[in-house]
Amino acid sequence: MFILGEKSSGSFARKESKLKSSSLSVQIQTLFSEIKSTPQFLKASKLFKIETSPIWQFPIPQEPRTELELIKAIVAVVRTKSCPTLFSSVEENLVGIESRVEAVNSLLCAGLNEIQFIGIWGMGGIGKTTIAKILFDRISHQFDFSSFLSNVRNNEEKSGLVHLQEKLISRILGKETKICDVHEGATMIKRLLYHKKVLLILDDVNHLRQLKYLAGKQEWFGFGSIIIITTRDEHLLVKHGVTRRFEVQGLHTDEALQLFCRHAFEKDKPEPSYLVLSNHVVNYAKGLPLALEVLGSFLHGRGPSAWENALGKLREVCNAEIFETLKISYDGLDDKEKNIFLDIACFFIGNDKVDVTELLDSFGFYATIGLDVLVERSLLTISDAGTLEMHDLLQEMGLEIVRRESPDEPGKRSRLCSLGDVDHVLSKNTGTEAVQGILLGSADSADTGLHLNAKSFSMMKKLRLLMIQNHVHLSDDLEYLSSELRILQWWGFPLQSLTSLCNLEKLQEIEMRHSQIEYLWKGKKPLYSLKSIDLSHSLNLLMTPNFSGSPYLECLVLEGCIQLYEVESSVGFLERLILMNLNGCKNLRLLPSSVSGLKSLKFLYLSGCSKLEILPEGLGHLDSLEVLNVSGTVLRELPSCIGLQKLKELLFFGCSGPPISMLLSSFAGLHSLTTLQLSHCNLLEGAIPNDLGCLSLLRKLHLGSNQFVSLPESLSQLYRLEFLSLEECRNLKKLPKLPTGVHVNASNCISLQIVPDPEKHCTFLSWASFINCFTLAKQGCNSVAFTSMIRHLQEVSQYHCEEARKTLFHFVIPGNEIPEWFDHQTVTPSVSIHLHPGRRSNKFLGFALCSVFAVHERCQLPPVYPCEYDITCIVKVDGEELYKKPVFSFDGMQGRGVSDHLWFHYENSPPSYRHHVERAEWQQIEFSFQVKGQGLVVKKCGVRLVYEQDVEEVNQSNANISDEALEFPRCDDGKAAVVSHAISKRGVPHSHGGGSSKRSGFVYMELINTFIDQYTSEVHVSHAISKRGLPHSDGGESSTGRGFVKYGSVCFDEERRLKRLKRH
């Protein structure tokens, strides 16, 4: 954002002269012309592309009376323009969109304090979603929570309404959440959002149930909330009581010509020799934006004769439906590209590009170049997440092309993907050689009681894809499937085996989740193309098949197969196997010794195999193994770890066998280990091997809920350690010297007495949670907390690089006296600091904060249950909200009190904020702390704005803090507090997230991850961080759900695991 400083020249310089009596708009244009000549504006215009979207199309809130007020208004508008956006590329190459956006925006202005439902309706491809995306980018920063649920119709059809509710709830909570049914989901959404100011956009709604269970009534949301719905069906809006509706019309002729030219000629006007031809195209498209883009891309770079030829086709169907217009681009594809387009339109929208490319290549379609052609011709888009996306009209065009192959008999079509067609063909046995693919989605077949004739497949000689994603009934045994079959996906498969099937040499994937399979086949079956088997949650599966005929298998998922007792020894032939997931196989007692042949195995999940006692010795020599999860097992012995040189994660959570010290006497050989999970392993004193320090790459160490009294001194040698979880270690008395920068969660370590003293050691704790560690507090650790913060300030002031300044200080400990060093204190949850022009101009570093919080104890009926408490910080600058983010969260038991605790916090201000503080360009900064959770209050607050001079002074003096003043009173009744901090026109830094560790005690959320989740939806996190200028988070992980798989829970596959690691 550009700032007009005192060195600026011209009539817009800082002065209070009145605006002249001439037209205000003329004066605005004059001033803006002068502003545009300044270096600040030129730099900002390049950075934020201000000139490509005229600033004057944004309303100025009120008529300015002075030039200074006018400049402030301009700056406010530019600030809005330069906000990071979720759909940053949406506004590129758009024409005529601004008037439509403003029309919808005028509906929003009709009731600012109301809970508003707005409907945007019109035909497909007319621009409804584009309008909604632009509105989302421009106003989402004004809300407590914002979310854009795209493609509601398609996502419900593909995954069900419960999945959409889970997606929304997961965004609200910032973590993956599962629900049982739509009623539970609706209740949770209402409970989570009724007190928040929400912006929710539901894109492409086509059924009333979607509104009923995603945004039921106004009472679901807090005041000022806005719910925007895009749909093709106006009557759906009427039925839901949406009175404010906007119908999107097509583009005017001049707008349509301009949009077409941008795609056909990459400029706003046609070449003179193409003017007449261009007008013909525009006339045919009838103002439909998508048709103009598709035709423009199709004709781009072609000569006049090609244009004439294409227009000849258009003239033959001059009054045809949009289908005919779009089909012109399809007709320009070769046969392989047409097959790619139809496969995607029928089966693969929303799927991962890499996976689909590999599959399509197996059909000989040359998908890499084919997909590029489709993208170039505006027939396909690739999302930021790498998934295949297609506009509804284009998908409908593809479906119509398939339908026209045989209008009256679906069995003669190449692809079947609707319930009616699949039911007709498979129940009446009308399939033919024409059928290449069948998809019966989970939403289609739910509760239909569909009965299929097994003989229906006998005539489908060219069937390549069979995807049935829900339970159906078969009248007979399945005796035949095409030898061309690549994908066999049949959830809830009703037969006991596939023994009767043969000639499936081209089969690449078997996915039969929740099936009735007892065994796949007997003996050797030649499946040399098979790469993946997923029989997860097949409750009747007894043993694995003979794998000797599937040497190229890469993924084996048998999670939740509770009757599985044996893994066939032929698994050792799978030299290319990368992932083996046996989580939750409760009857599995051992693995075959032949697993030593799994030379490529990287991920081995055995969590929840509660009868597994022994691992084969050969497992210790798997050179490629990176993750070994044996949580929740009863292992009596481990293999030699000599060969596990690449092992990165070793997870023992909740192992109930012999002590770990008997299983793992040494860490020698585990030089690549980055995560070690030993929580809930009943570790006694001395049980942790003394050579722990040899794990030189270890970053995360989980030791919570164990019985040891002390930790090995070698812990100090783990120089790369980032997170140490010790919560609920109730016998722990002493922490050894720790590596610099480690995040420590020792909540509920009630016997803890000694922590490293920063005055005696060269290292100190910069992030620590000692909630309910009252013994430690009585030993004077509150002075350690304050001294550590001062040491942190000294460290940060010494290193001026940005990486050093990103470090966050966070320290929580029992106590109720705020040190006098915090020079702005109140006994109410509100602090205000005002800056004046004559203040000192030392270099501003950041702000330090100390507060006292507690949870009041209350009588609770029914009995207590776990709950989460949040304290959220709202920051305002000169009365305008800058951002809102959680400060920290912790878990407790509903109704049980938590005594007074001190929270010390410091974070550096970003350079842009420091600039504003030092130049007095902000007059007031306000911090408001909202609490969530019954009985939670913030009792006191102290703030200090930190300058370099403060650090120099504190180097020479001791903090004035009294240990004798500490008391621990019982929590009395009181209202939940809302702290309202005000810090003047000084930098308000964005938070850099600390680690969190979560058990029955407390958890501190990663500040940066939660902040990003508020403003991004389906955008890559690193992109959002770079756009906001925020530091990446190095936060820790929950000891029950992050970084390892808890036994008994659903294990993530390799892709989910990698995404989770990336997110953390």
Task: Sum up the overall morphology in one term.
Answer: globular
* Average of per-residue pLDDT values: 77
Distance linking N and C termini: 30 Å
> Helix tally?
30
Could you name the ranges where pLDDT drops below 50 across 5 or more consecutive residues? Answer: 1-22, 46-59, 317-321, 958-1064
What this model shows, in words?
The chain contains 30 helices and 35 strands. The protein is α/β, with parallel strands linked by helices and 1064 residues long. Helix 6 (152-159) crosses helix 7 (161-173) and helix 15 crosses helix 19. The chain is globular, with a radius of gyration of 32 Å.
Structural features:
1064 residues, alpha/beta, 21-stranded mixed sheet, five-stranded parallel sheet, 28% helix, globular, disordered N terminus, disordered C terminus, repeat, leucine-rich repeat
Secondary structure blueprint with pairings:
Blueprint: H1 24-35, H2 39-48, H3 67-81, H4 97-108, E1 116-121, H5 128-139, E2 145-149, H6 152-159, H7 161-173, H8 182-193, E3 198-205, H9 208-214, E4 226-231, H10 234-239, E5 244-247, H11 253-264, H12 275-285, H13 289-299, H14 304-316, H15 322-331, H16 335-348, H17 353-362, H18 367-376, E6 381-382, E7 388-389, H19 392-403, E8 415-416, H20 419-428, E9 437-440, H21 442-445, E10 451-452, E11 465-468, E12 473-474, E13 487-490, E14 509-511, E15 532-534, E16 555-557, E17 579-581, E18 603-605, E19 627-629, E20 649-651, H22 660-663, E21 675-677, E22 700-702, E23 723-725, E24 743-745, E25 767-769, H23 774-778, H24 781-798, H25 802-805, E26 809-814, E27 824-826, E28 830-833, E29 844-855, E30 866-877, E31 880-893, E32 898-908, H26 911-918, E33 922-932, E34 936-947, H27 948-954, E35 978-985, H28 1007-1015, H29 1021-1028, H30 1054-1063
Helix pairs in contact: 4-5, 6-7, 7-8, 11-12, 11-13, 12-14, 13-15, 15-19, 16-18, 16-19, 24-27
